Task: inverse folding
């Protein structure tokens, strides 16, 4: 009996160490998700708007990727303080269709499970951007043949609704190297280099509706 108890204790300690190791991987020191935050309140309609507010309050680059449901949840919670990971976990707990992860470049990706926008995986022969603002890079997207081809193939139209303040802050010129990159990689690069900004690619909710997609660099 004593040997059995000892073995069980060893197994329990091993599992505890294994779980702790994975927790450390998820919020490794120096990563965006490991940053500490104080108390704050999030109250927004839709995951996209909540993620945008989190990006602004946490000063963290966040990209949102979703084929939108017909009705988005209203996100309301008081965050008691903790890490960015804790905050994001509270977000997806109120929107269980969504998940998040952190890319190697430190950008947080918030996305809808099994309902991601395939445009982000399109590989572009990107000509590069030399000392262009975030707004100019966004405007140039309409000239990218790969994006135009995706829109045509998916019978989709671009549709963004801006209120005029989107490019007011953190819009200093940046440069992006030319080469073959995905749309997601371009957006991540712009988010990191323009500092404290994020992005979203949102597709209309239902195949029965006319397809619309918005490409936004916050």
Result:
């Amino acid at each position: 009996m004593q040997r059995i108890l000892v073995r069980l204790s060893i197994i329990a300690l091993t599992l505890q160490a294994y779980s702790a190791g994975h927790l450390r991987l998820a919020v490794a020191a120096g990563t965006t998700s490991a940053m500490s935050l104080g108390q704050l309140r999030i109250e927004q309609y839709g995951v996209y708007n909540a993620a945008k507010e989190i990006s602004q309050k946490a000063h963290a680059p966040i990209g949102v990727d979703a084929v939108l449901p017909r009705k988005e949840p209203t996100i309301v919670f008081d965050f008691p303080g903790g890490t960015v990971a804790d905050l994001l976990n509270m977000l997806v707990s109120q929107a269980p269709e969504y998940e998040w992860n952190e890319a190697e470049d430190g950008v947080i990706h918030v996305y809808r499970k099994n309902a991601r926008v395939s445009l982000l995986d399109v590989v572009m022969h990107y000509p590069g951007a030399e000392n262009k603002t975030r707004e100019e890079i966004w405007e140039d997207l309409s000239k990218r043949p790969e994006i135009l081809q995706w829109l045509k193939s998916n019978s989709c139209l671009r549709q963004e609704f801006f209120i005029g303040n989107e490019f007011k802050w953190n819009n200093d010129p940046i440069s992006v190297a030319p080469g073959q990159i995905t749309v997601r990689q371009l957006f991540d690069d712009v988010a990191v280099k323009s500092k404290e900004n994020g992005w979203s690619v949102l597709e209309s909710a239902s195949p029965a509706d006319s397809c619309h997609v918005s490409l936004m660099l916050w």
